[in-house]
Amino acid sequence: MIMKKENIIESKSWQKYVKKKNITQKTLGNYVFSLLQFCKANNKPLDSMIKEMLEEQLPYIDEQGRIHEYNPEYGLIDTYINNTVTYLQTKGNSNHSIHSHMMGIRSVLTSLGVKLPAKVELERNTKEWYVLSKEDIRFVLSISALHHQALITFMAHTGIRSGDIRDFRISDFMNATYTYHHCTEIDDFLEKAPEGMIGYWQFKPQKTIKHDVECKVYNTEESSNLIMKSLRRRQASLEKINKKKGTDYRLEKNDYLFSSRNKNFKGKINESTITTLFVRRNEELFKHRERLLQQELSEGKISEETFKAKIGEIPVFHAHGLRKFFITTLARKRVNLRASAFLEGHAPFMQHDSSYVDSDNLEELIYEEYQRVIPALSFLKDEEDFELGKRNHDLQIENTQLKQENHQLVIENKNIRDDFEKEARKVFEDILRENNIKL
Question: What totals of helices (H) and strands (E) does the chain contain, helices first?
Answer without folding.
Answer: 20, 4
